[in-house]
Structures
1.
Amino acid sequence: MTEFTDEELALDPNFAARFDSDDRRPPCQLYLISPPAIDAGFVDSLAAAFDGGDVAAFQLRLKGVGDDAIAQAAAPLQKLCAERDVAFIINDSMSLAKRLGADGVHLGQGDGDPREARKLLGPSVQIGVTCHDSRHLAMEAGEAGADYVAFGAFYPTTTKETIHRPDPSILGWWTALFELPCVAIGGITPGNAAPLVKAGADFLAVSGAVWGHSDGPQAGVAAFRAVLAQE
Ligand SMILES: Cc1ncc(COP(=O)(O)OP(=O)(O)O)c(N)n1
Ligand SMILES: Cc1ncsc1CCOP(=O)(O)O
Ligand SMILES: [Mg+2]
């Protein structure tokens, strides 16, 4: 991608986009986040979710659970992801991602250095970084070799306590300047996702709207089809 000076970028945030105007980004895709706690039957819920429509990635995000317990829970889920061609991403821990041979790891700002993760995991493992509502953090993550940056929480959510509330325009700013994919997260539902897709999100990361859907996770994923196909 074309490199620009800070001055050029400050003058016109779409400066780079003019030069890369025939670069087409793939359509926005779904990135499923697990509930914070699961039971042994969850593999069936995950299979149902995958039956609902295309899912690009699944993140195992179990909070307050030790690595051994996560590793035990992960085995059938990772196998299912491999069978369905869905990237299997581990949250928080690069060492656990390495131990499990996961397809990727998601690192928050306090979860470790993406450069260290790259050294540990190698070139083909996907590394994602939480960037809240910060252009600065996103550019830092890109510099550090992340494979995607995640902005959020765009909407109120009960899945996680959140402080930052970006405007959807941060997605447009990012995609105009950088090829690196961006993920939108936080309280996303089929009803409020359209502005994020329109603004340029490459992925919608969703938990509650799928697992909490009144007709089950298959219907939860299917409900996103229309908004993802709007481009
Ligand atoms: C895709 C994606 N984006 C953001 C997060 C949040 O990560 P983090 O800030 O480390 O918070 P926890 O998820 O660890 O509570 C994520 N997990 N995935
Ligand atoms: C993990 C995380 N990081 C920011 S918001 C959020 C929760 C996403 O879950 P939901 O889709 O239920 O809001
Ligand atoms: Mg984290």
2.
Amino acid sequence: MRLRVEPIDSFTGTFRVPASKPETQRAILASTLAEGRSRITNDLRCEETETMKRACRALGAEIVEHEGYLDITGTGGQFKDDGRTVIRSDGSGLVFRTMTALASVLPSPVVVTGDETLCKRVMSPLLDALRDLGADIESICREGNAPVVNWGGRLAGGVCRLPGDVSSQFITAILFAAPFAERPVEIEVAGRVHSMSYIEQTLHTLRQAGIDVTVSDDHRRYRVEPSLYRSQDVAVHEDYTSASYLLAAAALYPGRKVFTGVHGTSTQGESAIVPILERLGVRTAFDRGADTLTVDTPPDSMRGDFHIDATDCPNIVPTLAALGAYVDGTLRVTGARVTHFHKASRIEAMVGELSKAGVDIRPRYERGVCDGFEVRGRSTYPGGVEFSHWGDHRIFMSLFVAGLRMESANLYSGFEEVRLSFPAFFEEFAKADVVTSAVDGPDADPAPPGPRRAPAAVPVGGA
Ligand SMILES: O=C(O)C1=C[C@@H](OP(=O)(O)O)[C@@H](O)[C@H](O)C1
Ligand SMILES: C=C(OP(=O)(O)O)C(=O)O
């Protein structure tokens, strides 16, 4: 089944931005690790937060859903352990990585699995670092990949090393498990730290839960003391990656649009989408009293040559490729090597698919890994393309936006996957009269390329 999406001539209206997936997942996890009752308001309900809830219930958390909030009774570190724990992470990197680390402290073995995309993602730096801390973990099928069995009962503590430019989730996973270690845990990071705002989110969550964690100014050394998680009440902010699809569409059409559910105080790296639109000549204004963001696109916006360093906003990189297709000039994105290790190699996916539509976009490689692109935009394209989502929800959503201003309808695989992070995606775009229809037939070229290997280790203190 594929989705046919008709182009639109205008994009106006009032749109609701969903709550943050990473913040909801962290809040559920921290509440599970704490003793007592926590309340999470404005939580996001989507498949990947469900995956986190299911994993946390497997550890013994009680999670009750109410309209607009969750009540969670945590484990206080006394995890359910019947000797038969299997944790299914589906496609969620965060669930797999945090659960693999936490399984080290359960007395009995735990199997942690994932879907086909997850089993292709790089896990070896995390597994090696956990082994350095005393964990006993084995890959079940292919060394360095999911699924794994963590034999449990061992997280001694000490020093471990991780690369900074593969995934921040390795650091996040060890930070969440570290308070349960027998001795303090130290993490040393090699090279520049990418996706730093996600580590900041983790540190914020841990500190709010009373965990004793320190970090060096350059974010390359962390130390966690054995400590107890305390319960907390958390309000989740808006999700700027999800917002980026609506905001990018807003930038492609002149006129005024209003976004609700936006407090404008989040420190998510992806909130960079708002200043990026400003640089492209789009006017934005937060009204913090009314929780809205108003976007005004003048007819002469999106002109010039732009360079964006995406080191701290990896998830909006596919959205930027979609936007760049319409820049009157060039849009160059650098610093995005972690996107190669996401569900798909995201820049290669966007380059491959946008090229099918006639977009002049070229990838950029650094040390053998695709880490950026340059796109020379045009005002429109003929359309009539069969787009593949490469097994990745964010590729589908970005291509959907890219197709809106083409001259004829396009066909898409993977539309069902909006349920992973943004279930109301079609509802929101329908407000701007985007017409979609399901079309029978096999997906075009649905398979993403095979497993991605961890790059050779960079020495600590190295480049
Ligand atoms: O910790 C998290 O919640 C995430 C961290 C980032 O991962 P990487 O550091 O692998 O980019 C981000 O891209 C991912 O979508 C969510
Ligand atoms: C890749 C994503 O998340 P994760 O890394 O947790 O799978 C994502 O939300 O796009």
